[in-house]
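Render PLP-dependent aminotransferase family protein in 3D.
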Amino acid sequence: MTVPVPPYVPDPHRDRYAVRTAGMTASEIRALFSVAGRPEVVSLAGGMPNLAALPLGTLSAQVARIIAEDGLTALQYASAHGLPLLREQICDVMALEGITAHPDDVVVTVGSQMGLDLVTRLFCDPGDVVVAEGPSYVGALGSFAAYQAQVVHVAMDEHGMVPQELRAALREAANAGQRVKLLYTIPNFHNPSGVTLAAGRRAEIVEICRAYDVLVVEDNPYGLLGFDGRTHPALRSLDPVNVVYLGSFSKTFAPGLRVGWVLAPRAVREKLVLAMESATLCPPTLNQMIVSRYLATHDWQGRISVFREDYRERRDAMLAALERYMPPGCTWTVPDGGFYVWVTVPEGVDTKAMLPRAVAARVAYASGSGFYADKSGGRRLRLSYCYPTPERIREGVRRLAAVLESELSR
Ligand SMILES: Cc1ncc(COP(=O)(O)O)c(C=O)c1O
C-alpha cells in the first residue's frame, strides 16, 4: 500500500528547538542530489567514489565467512574504542604517510565525518573560532555550524594554505580577543580545491599553530590517492602532540561501510572514546571486521593503485575537456590526486544562480558558496571527476561550457 505524502503543515515544534539548530541547514550539495541523480543529468557535483574495481565476489564470500565463523562476535556490541586488530592495521595504513602511532591512540569512528563531529564537540563552545582553508569541506562547515563555532577562512593558492595568511588570521583573532580553538585543514588533494599543501609549508603551519596554541585537525581521506603513487608527510608526523588526525576507508575502500578513525594524543583520545560512547555506544562491529579482513587478506594497496589509475584517467578527461570547451576567462586548478577540480568563472557570473539553468541543460556541479562559511565564492564551482565515465565527463563539461557562454552573453 502506498501512503500519500502528508500535506505541509507549519512545524508545531518550531519553538522548542535548541538554539544551536539554527546553524543546521541542508547543504546545497544534498539539496541537489535529487535532481542531479536523474540519468539524463551528467552529475559533476557529488564526491562518490567509483567502486567498480572492488572485488565484489570475494568480498561477499568473505562477509559470509565472517558471519558463519565469527557471527556471535560480528553481530554483537563491542568497545567504543574500536576493534584492537583494526586499530593495529590502521597504524600500518598511517605509516605510509610517515606516522608512527600506537593502536591505543586510534579511535574507530563511523566515517571520518563522525570524527569531525566528535572533535568539534570536544573542543568548541559557541562563539569559539575555527580557522579553515577558504574554501573548505562542506561537511566540516556543517559540524562547526552545529556547534555554533565561528569559521575564519584562510586563503589558499596553488600550493595550499598560505602560511602568512594563517599567521595574520591568528594574530587578528588574538587582537580581537577571540579564542581560536582549531585549525581544520585538508592538506592532500583538498576538497573542494584539489590542491595539495606544499612540503615546505607543512612544518611552518604546524609551527605557527603551536606558537598560537591552536590545535591542528588534519583531515586526510584522499592522501593515498595521489596519481604518481607518492604520499606526502602527514602534519601528524611532524607534531604528535598538537595534531589530531582524521582518516577514512571511504575513498580507498567503501564509503557505505562507514569506517573511519581519529588518531589523537592520549588525553584527547580518552575523551573521544567517552564522546563516542554517548553518540553511538560503539562503531559497527561487522563493518570493522569486514575492513579488517579486507586489509589482512587483500592486496589493498594494489587495489588503491587501480583506483588511482581510474581517477587519473577521469582527471585527464576533465582537464582536456575544460581546455577545449571552457570560455575565455575561466581558470581551474590541476589536481595531482583525489576527486576535484575547482573552477573560477569570469566576473559577473554567479554560480549558485546559474545552477538551475545548468541542471536544465543536463549538467550539475557544486556551486562555490557552499564551501565558505560566509557564503562567498559566488564565482567558483567544484567539479568532481571521480564517478562519471570519461565520456560523460567530456559531455558534462561541454554542456557546462555552453551554459557559461550563454550566461556571459546575457
Ligand atoms: C575532506 C573530507 N573529509 C571527510 C569526509 C567524510 O568522509 P567519511 O565518508 O569518512 O565520513 C569527506 C567526504 O567526502 C571529505 O571530502
